[in-house]
Amino acid sequence: MAGLRRLDAFQKVRRDAQSKSALGGIITLVAISAASILFLSEVYIYLRGVTRHSLHLSESTHVPLTRQSAKMPGKIRLQFKITFPHLTCRKLDFALDDASHGAGTLEKAYGRQSLTLRTPTLSELKLAMETGATPAATRHGCTIQGDLKIPLVAGEFAISITRRTWAEATSTLLLGLLDDRQLPDASLPQKSEFNVSHYIHYIRFGTPFPKAKDAPLEGRLHRIQNKMGGIALQQIHVKLIPTIYQRFLIAKNTYQLSVVDQTVQPETLVAKGVPLLPGIAVSYDFTPLAVHHVESRENIFVFLSSLVSIVGGVFVTVGMATGLLVHSAAAVAKKLD
C-alpha cells in the first residue's frame, strides 16, 4: 500500500489548509459556465453532423437504343404535368424519341397508364391562365400528365400541336408573314385557338435532390405573346447531374438539374424548316461526373475524447490562471511589506 501511495498523482490538500473565498466562487462559476457552453456546442455539432462533397466519374450504363430498351434495366423515372389553357387535348400530341401517343407506339413501349390527357381542373386553370383571362374562357384547355421509365441515355420528349392542327394554323401564319396588318397584335395573343402558352406544374427526372434550393422545372408559367396569336416553340435543354445523397446510413440515387431554355418564334419555324412543331420540347442528357453529398457524424470515440478534453481543459486552464493570479498577488503583497 505504501508503494501505491507514492504513485498517487492526485494528491489531496488537507481541509484545514484549504481556504474558500467569494472570488474563488466566481471563478468556479465562470469555469462551469464555459465548460457547459463548450460541452453543449460539441454535442450539437455531433448530432447535426458534417457535410462533405466530392466528384466522381458516374457509372456508365449500356442500354440498347431500341424501342424495347424501355423494358430493360438501366432506367430512370420521368414524371411531368403540364397544362395548356388554350388548346383542347385533341389538338395536342406527345412524343418521346421515336414513340408517339398519336401513332399509338408510346403505349406499346411504355404501357397504357404511362400518359394521361384530360380536361384541366379549375385550380390548374387558375395557375395556367394569362392576365385578364377567366376560367370560363379557358375551360377547353388540356392537362397532360405522364409517368414513364426511360433509358439512362440522352433523349428528347415533346408536347406539340398535331400536324393537322399545324396545317390549320399555317395558313394564318403565312398570312401574317405576308401582311402584318391582317393580324392585330392586341387581340390574337388572347383569342387564338393555336396559342401554345402553358404552365409547367413539374418535370422530374428520377428522385429530386432533397437539398436543392429550388426546382427549375416546377411551377413555371410560359406565356407566349406575339403577332401570330401565341404560336411558338419553347425548347428546354436539361443537363442531369447524378448525385448520391447519403444521410448517415441511408443513401439515395438522386439527380440535380441544370436548365437552359429558349423560345423559337413561328417565323423561324417556317423560314428555316425546323422539324419540331409549336409547343414544348425538352432534351436531356447525363453528365459524366457524379456528385457525392455525404452527411455523417464524427467517430463516437473522437466525440467522447472531445467532451473529456473540453471539461478537463477548462478546469485545468482556469486552475492555472487562478494559481498565477494568486501567486502574483502574494508576490506583490510580499514586496509591499
Structure overview:
With about 325 residues, the protein is an alpha+beta fold. The protein has one domain. Helix content is about 30%, strand content about 30%. The protein has eight helices and 14 strands. A hairpin with a 2-residue loop joins β11 (about 235-245) and β12. The two termini are about 45 Å apart.
Write the layout of secondary structure elements.
Layout: H1 2-6, H2 22-48, E1 50-57, E2 75-84, E3 92-96, E4 99-100, H3 105-110, E5 115-118, H4 122-128, E6 142-151, E7 155-161, H5 163-178, H6 188-191, E8 198-205, E9 207-208, E10 218-222, E11 233-247, E12 250-264, H7 266-271, E13 279-286, E14 289-296, H8 300-336
Parallel strand pairs: 9-12, 11-13, 11-14
Antiparallel strand pairs: 1-14, 2-6, 2-8, 3-4, 3-7, 5-6, 7-13, 8-10, 11-12
Helix pairs in contact: 2-8
Keywords:
32% helix, five-stranded antiparallel β-sheet, nine-stranded mixed β-sheet, 8 helices
Summarize the structure.
The protein is an alpha+beta fold and 337 residues long. 32% of the residues lie in helices and 32% in strands.
Residue share in β-strands: 25-35%
| Average pLDDT rating | 78
Task: Please give the oligomerization state of what you see.
Answer: single chain
- Please report the number of helical segments: 8
- Any idea what the shape is? elongated
Summarize the main sheet. Answer: 9 strands, mixed
What structural class results from the helix and strand content?
A: alpha+beta
Element string (H = helix, E = strand):
HHEEEEHEHEEHHEEEEEHEEH
Query: Considering DSSP H and I runs of 4 or more, what fraction of the residues is helical?
Result: 25-40%
Domain count: the total is 1
The radius of gyration computed from the alpha-carbon positions, rounded to a whole number of angstroms, is 35 Å
Query: Can you count the beta strands?
Result: 14
Low-pLDDT segments: 61-72, 181-191
